[in-house]
Predict the 3D structure of the following.
Amino acid sequence: MNELKPAAPDLGGGGFLRIRLDLSYDGGPFNGWALQPGLRTVQGALEEALALLIRRPVRVTVAGRTDAGVHARGQVVHLDLSEAEWLGLGRSSALDPASSLLRRLRGALGRVLGNLGGAVEVHGAALAPEGFDARFSALWRRYSYRIADGPALWDPLGRHSTLWHKEQLDTALLNEGASRLLGLQDFRSYCKPREGATTIRELQRFDFSRGADGVIVATVQADAFCHNMVRSLVGSALYVGAGAEPPGWLYERLIARQRDARSVLAAPHPLVLEEVAYPSAEGLLARAELTRARRV
Amino acid sequence: MNELKPAAPDLGGGGFLRIRLDLSYDGGPFNGWALQPGLRTVQGALEEALALLIRRPVRVTVAGRTDAGVHARGQVVHLDLSEAEWLGLGRSSALDPASSLLRRLRGALGRVLGNLGGAVEVHGAALAPEGFDARFSALWRRYSYRIADGPALWDPLGRHSTLWHKEQLDTALLNEGASRLLGLQDFRSYCKPREGATTIRELQRFDFSRGADGVIVATVQADAFCHNMVRSLVGSALYVGAGAEPPGWLYERLIARQRDARSVLAAPHPLVLEEVAYPSAEGLLARAELTRARRV
């Protein structure tokens, strides 16, 4: 989950070049995205691989920090390299620096991950446009959440990324309840509070649709998410989908602005960060300034 | 893979009732379907769970014996129970014997599998129609094989059931080559030979199609398969799809009727037994007789 903090991003001054990486990962074998001493995390693996290539410690900034067990198909990070480091990447091969970084980073990740090779895949590496910040430039983040509601839909091959829910769910009820949460709202009732962090977010999409395979996929999109927000929204919606609460209950909980005894987090393993959207190159600098200012 | 053997099936005489089970499994954590002493196999887990319920050793007969690492979404087995055993299943609950067997077998499998719970899911349990034999009554078996041809398509969440192929493949070339193998043929060139077993099979479908997600799915359907046949067909087709051999090469290899130095088995983990088809109740007895007679 993404959490906005007041620290100003490094916009790549001082002769540094900003690099954007696009990546996917299976969150199952990791203790979440964020670095934790002594634990296997996605950030830890990525930074270890980058350090092998660049020959110094490298820090990355992520678009959407994911909890333990949560996956990503469209995660974005940035890192800063000196011009010499960037040009050095392409020097020993016929490839340009970006292609060389992509190829060598894949190799280094394979060495770092060992028998978990393939759990993290870097799909793109490129020089970022002026003003790009993986976290602060993002326009929105979109997550998916897969739910197989009934044993007939329980596919062992998908069990690591699908909720196996015993009762059947009514997608019309789910959508009726979910649609009332859209817009700019205070999502305090659906967040794990963090000191100094706002809980006001713009929920742009929250809907449920049953695919051809019978599995329900929830889509949740917002400008940003506070901690545990997607899992809390989906967890509450399950009561509505099963008929245990009326659709209006989701909105009632929202306006109560507090976490109550029925607050429930849906399991992390069916949650996937699917996409992070950014403005065009021209809009980037303006966007970074706006994001930092708007929620103070 | 299914292998026809001359042994006559037990057609359920002598007061026994024949039960059909429909199941799915993730083949990854198993050493294949077939029972092997000291190794974890799907058959071993299923028979252990059944023995817990029935309180005696139980043998099952399978429609499509799968190799180590191969998965199933539509596997079918049969087993025989005495009338007393069958009626006893429903006695202590409000459920009929079939529903009770399904529920209790799921519970027993969970206990047998421990932290692999969910790797094997039983989707149906029912009294089989007269003359039903999971193996000998089958009209055809259909397998799928997923191929992500290029790093941009490598999704970590699907890596346990998708081939990650570096070179891009041409589905038109794949289909041109594959279509020439259709029909009743001697597939000796594409089989691991087994003593006394025929290699004549009717290949009913062999085609490749690229889905909305960009991943290629091969579909292979035949009346039955000899050992390693699907993986051998797909492995050879990869040469054609990559342009290393012309489409006609697949047929040339077929009529050579021998395994040569370019015989190659595609990896097992992208292979899924999707469906096994059976005749209507009326056609079942006739079919079982025909299948045993036709390939002698």
